[in-house]
């Protein structure tokens, strides 16, 4: 079953269960998927493209959480956090710290990176190899510490 089919099935289940949060989140995601299909003029999207959309939706909500918390609106931040949790079920599991360190060390060795000028290459290689499994901020700080 493709990721799009799973999202459609979960949307119907959320609709029948009257789970308003999940229904709303999946409706927004389905809209983003349809918009992307129109942009690329395809009938379906690959699971990788759908994962990119899910990751983008999660990032938008995490940014909103930060803004709501800094503005003193914890109830809105909590709502966004629940939506992030609902979307996270469609992402592959994140790499552990040990796995991330091993991936960074391997990428540095494979690319022959030796200075901060190579940071972009290392980041790009890891993000491509572990799509959706790596937090960009954690990766950035780890690569920076390894290369400096």
Give an overview of the whole structure.
The chain is mainly alpha-helical. It folds into two domains: 86 residues, Hypothetical Protein Yqey, Chain: A, domain1 (Orthogonal Bundle), CATH 1.10.1510; 51 residues, Arc Repressor Mutant, subunit A. It has seven helices and no strands. It is globular and about 55 Å long. The model has no long low-confidence stretch (mean pLDDT 91).
List the helices and strands and how they pair.
Blueprint: H1 3-16, H2 20-40, H3 47-70, H4 74-88, H5 97-111, H6 119-129, H7 136-147
Helix pairs in contact: 1-2, 2-4, 3-4, 5-6, 5-7, 6-7
What class do helices, strands and sheet pairing give? Answer: mainly alpha
User: What is the gyration radius calculated from CA atoms?
Assistant: 18 Å
Count of the separate structural domains: 2
User: In the CATH hierarchy, what is the class of the largest domain?
Assistant: Mainly Alpha
Shape: globular
Q: Strand portion, in percent?
A: under 5%
The total count of helices amounts to: 7
- Give the N-terminus to C-terminus distance in angstroms: 44 Å
CATH fold title of the largest domain: Hypothetical Protein Yqey, Chain: A, domain1
Helix content: over 70%
CATH superfamily membership of the largest domain: Uncharacterised protein YqeY/AIM41, N-terminal domain
The unreliable regions are none
Mean pLDDT equals 91
Biggest beta-sheet profile: none
Gross CATH architecture of the largest domain:
Orthogonal Bundle
Q: State the total count of DSSP E strands.
A: 0
